[in-house]
């Protein structure tokens, strides 16, 4: 369709910003002093009356790369100084949801606001776009509340994420587009205006969390309305666990392997197994973060989000606390508000409502009974040590290597920079961390083994991300021990700087030039294959140093138990190979539909080392929390289907020895303390009520697979 420009499509009122609280920009029903360009969009000839009697104009976006409506003033620019929100009456004319993109352009290319909104089917609503950048993180959470919201009978759809920057005194255009529709899609538009303040944005977040930590505006089967319903539902009887055909640790009696008195790994008949202390094959089905303190969320700075919170005195005082997670601003929590100060623990408070003063013991008893009934046989990482001490399920421990030593930036420092294992202080800290981790468990046969750290930044995203650690090492300061070790390797190989320069295709007048902070390390390419070869050699040496130092520390303090690796999220072939050499089991946090899609399964087969999937999850947004987690599915029922498919694929793989779900409890609606994550990925909700349909699918899957993995 040709571009149409005319004066008969939209209307811009004569009053500009400063004439009152509301400034009319355009009426998509009539014509006035605006210029409109329709690009691959058709306007209907006649207006249509909505259910409330308001007249609207139909616009049909054609199947094209980016059909759009562009609204501009006839002269100059609009001055919206002092205005806070753009509002547009809009109605999806299709029986399915549509995506509408709103762009507001300033006087130059650097001045631009961009918002993408999901436009649900149904009656007309008011679309509100804040006239400044914003995101749910600005309100302390990763994902904002669902839209539209009901504002006294009116449907209001707030764009909770707006990107860019805009000088409101010079607004050049407003554009409405649709990203590459595959068929014609129609939307009905009405009046467009701007208003002072940002009432709608704040209303979107006001009063969204009730006293139980539940989302106030939604309903789902497990939601409770009062304490009596909470107690009755949580205390429903747990079915007895099925342990037929298993030894005391959960190992299969029909898979007889070497008996050592400790958990270990063994290959038999072409398949890797974990082996119980009694010598039986064990496929680890675990749950991470089985703990009662995961329901904490910051209240300070956003008190209007919460309704009917208990007092911070008397019996309720134990559920209030203070914290500071501002250090997470460098990675996972970057850009978040409300990351320190007073918090409230919704999950623990609900446990108190159910069981009174004895809630910790009651929770542990109930939780262990549930996990066993649901077919789990392992307590995963970050779980309550008191649960492990009851010796009802095998468990894992973390060696958290935290202290003063050097580090290297890779550009993907989500949880912080990479530790520098060449710094002598690293070995000292690792030794101290291992000594601490083994306390009280060194001689416990129920301990499966130790992890070291979690999701280190071995690589970065993108096609050159594999080399990020090598490039980051050379970018570092001269005092970096890792950098000095890398330079020494290059000097040993090339002898003179001119030979390195020729191999890498760079200018290098002297070895001292490599010492410069932010040295411009080249990216590998076909023209200079030596770069990739040298970087690969360094990545392997770096990983060897890390895993060797850590493994020696662990085995120095505990020679009995397994070293379960470093819980890879980002990885390189070099790091995986080093892990396979120094670790008993390689562990991967896999966020994908199938385990083999989340780690280098072919390399694991080649290295012939067992693999433990130490995190996986599937989330939806139909049970309270707004986020769907890292691997979203459409609804609660699909969570169960996805779980069954994933675990079946894990059990069928001869190198995979287990899979651990993350995690036990839903994240708080308003975001967890660490980084504001607020997803529905739990086995139970913030009220400790199990998601019945999901856990039933989990139970059937687990019990089937614990006895069906090929011997």
TrEMBL record:
Q: Which part of the chain is the Glycoside hydrolase family 42 N-terminal domain?
A: 481-593
Signal peptide positions (record): 1-17
- Give the superkingdom in one word: Bacteria
Q: Which UniProt keywords apply?
A: Glycosidase, Hydrolase, Signal
- Which enzyme class? hydrolase
Gene3D superfamilies per the UniProt record, alphabetical = Galactose-binding lectin, Glycosidases
The molecule here is called: Beta-galactosidase
Organism, scientific name = Rhodanobacter lycopersici
